[in-house]
Amino acid sequence: MKKYTVCICSGTTCFVMGSAELQTLADHLPPELKDRVEIRFSHCLGLCNDRNFSRAPFVTIEGEPMGGATIPAIIERLGKLASGNA
Amino acid sequence: MNGALFLDVGQAQCPKKGERVCGDAFRSRKFPAENRVISVLADGLGSGLKANVLATMTATMGLKFVSADAQILPAAEIMMEALPVCRVRKISYATFTIIDCRMESRTRVIELDNPPFILIRNGEPVDVAHRELVSPKHRDRVLRVSEFEMQPEDRIVAFTDGISQAGLGTDRHHLGWKRTGVAGFLCRRIAAAPTVSAQHLAEQLLREALSQEADGCAGDDMTATVLYFRQPRRLLVLSGPPYDQARDTEYARMIDEFPGRRVICGGTTANIVARILHREIETVIDSGSRTLPAFSRMPGTDLVTEGILTLTRTAQLLEGDLQPGERNAATSLVELFRESDLIEFVVGTRINEAHQDPTLPVDLEIRRNIVRRIAAALRDRLFKEVSVRFI
């Protein structure tokens, strides 16, 4: 089964804006996603100074940036990918 | 010490069981113009605060007199007479070891009633000849003066009697661990790790002395000091993007051109270096915590960390706020600092706009201010040579 890659930015701005919390993403994944997600960390995705994106904390899900990331928002996006409704 | 041999200074101490303040004092100062390092270890009479005051006065006076090249006997008389007299024992008392190391000439060690220092050369303790000086005013106090030339890889180890008398009265050591026990331990440690730093060796000696005690607690104030004469170990720290973007390439290349260990503190900085040098960065899983981001690895570097938060925590650690068992990017950085002698910071001063966002939940300190704090702590507390330049 395909695994989805989530990459969490741990640069300064993202970290203080909430990626410290995102580090616990694995603990919050629902059972159906537990084995379908690979969580990685980046030293800095370099998105916080790019005005085309919204705001920190940033993650990428399958390479797609997500701004203002929260655990529920990430799980919702992963759920949609897994169910083919992305 | 410019490019030549370097004196690495380390010390570790522990107060007597039940006391909050150590009655020993250690002071060390570098005199770059004279290529000279003076270190003084003093042990005050008794323990606790009173002993600490006696020891601190002695160490401070010793450092002043020796740095001013005062004659040692009159200086020692002044020191003994200046100390307050103990109301109970009717004596003014502090023992000391002064190590006056001139890098390009002879080293002189002046001792008064501390356990004799140990010189370790080629992994073995070496006997050093000494002469004795007695003041007519204090006939019961004998000064020992030793002079010798330091050789590369020599170590001078000085300690207070809390170390050599560790375990006194136990079945293992009726008369304490003794100087021979200390020397044997040092030789074994150095054989196992020939380039062990002064700080690590001092800490290992203290731990081993504590382990000789029946209850693992110090029966007397304990201080271990190590001076290690060696080729300097250099460390480069790049932090922050250059003010002028046109200098990014020059900045990144410093990593490859530097003859020593290299650290990058800052995500944007790491991205600049990775882009210009075509390197991959890999973040180490589980190296982060709720308070500090994870660290990363990049070929050609020894450590890559996040910037401001890690540097701020590093400054706090160096200023004395060490939490037992803490392992993270900041403690890894402190470890690299401790293992280095000449530390060069190159600090980029371009402002990160995202850090100016008024909705950030914490105040982010300005990078150059934190680096200045770190540099001061490295100089004053770890006796490192530090340079900071801005780009």
User: Approximately how much helix is present in the residues of chain B?
Assistant: 25-40%
Total beta-strand segments of chain B = 18
Structural class determined from secondary elements of chain B: alpha+beta
Mean pLDDT of chain A: 90
Oligomer designation: heterodimer
**What is the overall number of helices of chain A?**
3
SSE order of chain B, one letter for each helix or strand: EEEHHEEEEEEEHHHEEHEHEEEHHEHE
Helix content of chain A: 25-40%
Main sheet strand line-up of chain B: 2-3-4-5-9-8
Structural class of chain A: alpha+beta
Q: Give the strand content of chain A.
A: 15-25%
Largest interface: A-B, 21 and 28 residues
Q: What general form of chain B does the structure show? A: elongated
* Computed CA radius of gyration of chain B, to the nearest angstrom: 23 Å
3D structure, described in words:
The complex is a heterodimer of chains A (86) and B (391). By secondary structure, chain A is an alpha+beta fold. Chain A is built from three helices and four strands, in the order E-H-H-E-E-E-H. Chain A has helices at 12-22, 25-28, 71-82; strands at 4-9, 37-42, 59-61, 64-66. A four-stranded mixed sheet of chain A has the order 2-1-3-4, with helices on one face. Chain A is globular. Chain A starts with a strand and ends with a helix. In chain A, 34% of the residues are buried. Chain B is α+β, with helices and mostly antiparallel strands and 391 residues long. In chain B, 31% of the residues lie in helices and 28% in strands. Chain B contains ten helices and 18 strands. In chain B, the strands form four sheets. A six-stranded antiparallel sheet of chain B has the order 2-3-4-5-9-8. A five-stranded antiparallel sheet of chain B has the order 1-11-10-6-7. A five-stranded parallel sheet of chain B has the order 16-13-12-17-18, with helices on both faces. In chain B, a hairpin with a 2-residue loop joins strand 6 (118-121) and strand 7 (124-126). In chain B, helix 4 (178-192) packs across helix 5 (198-212), helix 8 crosses helix 9 and helix 8 (308-318) runs parallel beside helix 10 (367-381). The longest helix of chain B is centred in the N-terminal third of the chain and has 20 residues, at 48-67. Chain B is elongated. The relative contact order of chain B is 0.11.
